[in-house]
Amino acid sequence: MTHRHAQRLSRRTTLGLLFAAAAGVMAAGMPAAALAQPKGEVQVRIGYQKYGTLALLKGRGTLDKRLAEQGVGVKWTEFPAGPVLLEGLNVGSIDFGTVGEAPPIFAQAAGANLVYVGNEPASPASEAIVVPKGSGLRTLADLKGKKVALNKGSNVHYLLLTALEKAGVAYADIQPVFLPPADARAAFERGSVDAWAIWDPFLAAAEKQLGARVLADGKGLVANYQFYLASRTYAEKNPEILRIVLDEVAKVDEWGRNNPHEVATILSAQTGLSTEVVALAASRYAYGVKPVSVDVMASQQRVANAFASLKLIPKPISVKDALLPARQLATSAK
Predict the structure, then answer these.
(1) How far apart are CA 75 and CA 213, in angstroms?
(2) Do residues 286 and 77 lie in contact, with contact meaning Cβ atoms separated by under 8 Å?
(3) Cα-Cα-Cα-Cα dihedral of 195, 123, 183, 266, to 10°?
(4) Contacts of 69 (CB under 8 A, 6+ apart)
(5) What is the 3-state secondary structure (H, E, C) of the chain?
(6) Structure confidence by residue, pLDDT tens digits, 273-295
(7) How many CB atoms neighbour CB 41 within 10 A?
(8) What are 188-206's pLDDT values in tens digits?
């Protein structure tokens, strides 16, 4: 067997597991008529952020073309950050989207009926705590008593908690300033905050355009997984559509890994950022959508426990409750 053939077989095996939740719904008693390809006005509404695989997928147009052949429309909606994207999922304005580690935990704790359907590999260098180039802050311990801008409930919220713990600084000893990325950048530029916890491509833009200095990135602190989530209702009713979506995600991941220059060009057009900024961000990204594993869920549970211990979420949660039943996974993985 050639290496290339082995890669194809490996990808098919991975996708078989990845789409287990969707396909398993069929085995759980869905009428045979529902197994046919979607027709007519069926639609998938996708929430995406300014950067990442879904932005790349939108830019390439391959998903729209493939689903159009099945009579399925695609509606793309951009969100500034994960928490608001999952608010959209919860209220029914989108069906599918991608976010970092923290937003699903806040959403689940608030009662959102969502399910994990896959994740990209860990990408710890894609988020960081930065300070202005002329700042006197040199270590994480120097954040004590300082104002730190961040998007509440986002992946960098967990990064900040973990970084402070490593430095021996209590979360109560800093002044968190909760701002979305655009407002946080403005505050950072005018010196209204001392540090900023942020993710790519905003991180790369701050480094390239503002000369921001990285105080600490996620390496050695957090995994920084990107998760694909769907409305539980949508996942149960439209498993075949989700299978196609995730198959196209896997294809664009494979393409992106091998075409960094083209990735930078497409994402530059999507984001309005320079190719230099996007290329830096893309160099830190990890491609390769996978099924949500036991280890990844254990990592998510640690994030949830950290937020619960600080009462940042209203109650402790079990992240496994946001998975489709194991029997469905087992049935479709055969």
Answers:
(1) 38
(2) no
(3) 140
(4) none
(5) CCHHHHHHHHHHHHHHHHCHHHHHHHHCCCCHHHHCCCCCCCEEEEEECCCCHHHHHHHHCHHHHHHHCCCCEEEEEECCCHHHHHHHHHHCCCCEEEECCHHHHHHHHCCCCEEEEEEECCCHHHEEEEECCCCCCCCHHHHCCCEEEECCCCHHHHHHHHHHHHHCCCHHHCEEEECCHHHHHHHHHHCCCCEEEEECCHHHHHHHHHCCEEEEECCCCCCCCEEEEEEHHHHHHCHHHHHHHHHHHHHHHHHHHHCHHHHHHHHHHHHCCCHHHHHHHHHCCCCCCECCCHHHHHHHHHHHHHHHHCCCCCCCCCHHHHCCCHHHHHHHCC
(6) 999 999 999 999 889 999 899 99
(7) 8
(8) 999 999 999 999 999 999 9
Beta bridge partners of 76: 46
List Cα–Cα distances, 116 to 228, 277, 279, 290, 306, in angstroms.
6, 30, 29, 11, 20
pLDDT of residue 46: 98
How far apart (Å, rounded) are the C-alpha atoms in residues 44 and 246? 12
Q: Measured between alpha carbons, how far is 318 from 273 in angstroms, rounded to an integer?
A: 38
- Closest by CA to 231, choosing from 109, 96, 72, is 96
Task: Evaluate the CA torsion angle 209, 278, 87, 321 in order and state its sign.
Answer: negative
Q: What is the pLDDT of residues 44-63, one digit of tens each?
A: 999 998 888 999 999 999 99
Asked whether residue 308 carries a pLDDT value surpassing 90, the answer given is yes
Q: Is the peptide bond before 201 cis (omega within 30 degrees of 0)?
A: yes
Extract the tokens encoding 89: 């999922």
Query: Sheet containing 73-78: which strands, arranged edge to edge?
Result: 73-78, 43-48, 96-99, 226-231, 114-120
* Averaged pLDDT for residues 107-115: 95
Answering whether pTM is above 0.85, one says no
Residue type, 17: L
259-270 pLDDT tens trace: 999 999 988 988
* Residue 23 tokens, joined: 């396909």
